[in-house]
Amino acid sequence: MQKSTQELLKTLQSKQDIRSYLEENQKELLSNSLPQLLEELLQQKQLTKAKVIERANLDRVYAYQIFSGMRSPSRDKLLQLCLGMKTTVEEAQQLLHAAGQAPLYPRDKRDSILLFAFHQQISVIEVNSLLADLEEKLLS
User: Fold this and answer.
1) Taking Cα atoms as reference points, which of 65, 68, 91, 62 lies closest to residue 79?
2) Does domain 32-133 have CATH number 1.10.260?
3) How many other C-beta atoms can be found within 10 angstroms of the C-beta atom of residue 35?
4) pLDDT at 77
5) What is the per-residue pLDDT across 33-70, written as a single tens digit (0 to 9) for each?
């Protein structure tokens, strides 16, 4: 991906034919499902599902169902997986988008704490401790 979202939007608005837009910008469009993106990240980061699930502090069966696409995770469960994979903020945002969940929003107090956690690469347990200290809902 090289074009900004704003650039894509301007290009889209200038086109009279959606097919030409899609053809010209094929490499810029998100096309992978959540399970595909999770699998790609596992490979890139050289992680195993078992290790990520342990770090994410998730039920093993439930997490494997997310990886296989049998279950759609809640926003919090997906964030736990992201923390378990030690994703970047951008990777987490992409996974949230693929799952149809709201992105992390820095004007929201709880989301700000979570964004901080991603930048600091802290564990789910540490994140929940921080959320509790700051009187915010824990990842559950």
Assistant:
1) 91
2) yes
3) 14
4) 98
5) 999 999 999 999 999 999 999 999 999 999 999 999 99
Q: Are 127 and 101 in contact (CB under 8 A)?
A: no
Residues in contact with 117: Cβ distance below 8 Å, sequence separation at least 6, in sequence order: 83, 126, 127, 130
Give the span between the Cα atoms of 106 and 98, in whole angstroms: 20
* Euclidean distance between CA atoms 103 and 106, whole angstroms: 10
**Rounded Cα distance, 21 and 87, in Å:** 31
Please, what sign has the CA dihedral across residues 46, 49, 52, 54?
negative
The rounded distance, in Å, linking the Cα atoms of 45 and 56 is: 15
Q: How far is Cα 92 from Cα 84, in angstroms, rounded to an integer?
A: 11
The span from the CA of 47 to the CA of 131, in Å, is 27
How long a stretch of residues is the chain?
140
The residue ranges of the chain whose pLDDT is under 70 are 1, 30-31
In the prediction, which pLDDT does 43 show? 96
User: Domain extents for the chain?
Assistant: 1-31, 32-133
